[in-house]
Amino acid sequence: IFLALSFSLFNLSSFSFGKAKIVGWRFTQDYTTVRIEFPEYADKIASKANVTLPNGDRMIPGLMITDSDSGKSSLAIAPTYRMEGQDSFVTLESKMWEHVTELKVKEVWDYINNIWPYRMIETITALSNKNNIPMKGGVKNVYLNWSKELQLVGAIGKGKEMIVKEKFLENFDAEDENFTEYDVVKFFMSLPGQIEMPLYASNKLIAA
Fold this sequence. Notes:
Elements: H1 2-12, E1 21-27, E2 31-37, H2 42-49, E3 59-68, E4 73-83, E5 90-91, E6 95-98, H3 105-130, H4 139-150, H5 152-171, H6 181-190, H7 199-206
Antiparallel strand pairs: 1-2, 2-3, 3-4, 4-5, 4-6
Helix pairs in contact: 2-3, 3-6, 4-5
């Protein structure tokens, strides 16, 4: 079903989601994973949510499909998204089908056609709402609060944390009082594509 599902999404998705693009894959003895994005569906998601992201930003929706003969689940589908122009992507909670469960193709397609778009609408709405939350107290204090919340020093080490701090202060004008939580979240989401770091630290940043 993994190959059939991936093939169908890649070749038939233009009917609902626009042209699909395979952007990553991984094959091991334990599992097979493919990540598919739908760039043409980005504007439709924004339209359905009735939101416009700042600065012309676009949230690119996607799916990560994992098939396994071992472990708890035989098939897992996770919604993904990334900001256009960034390499880092966010993986949301998976829908899993266990080995002991009869895998029904209709259930899988129901999830992709109905639940997945709803999750994407929820996500872009949450991102848009962050633009309504002003960051106060000055750029340095904002960085200090976020770095503590994310436990950056413990996650990536003091040396790399200093690099992140320098990038943050370069990115935001010290006198600027008009930036928002959206701007800060977008900054932290971009870091795993710029600085080498452990996977758990990367996941924490892009899920900020």
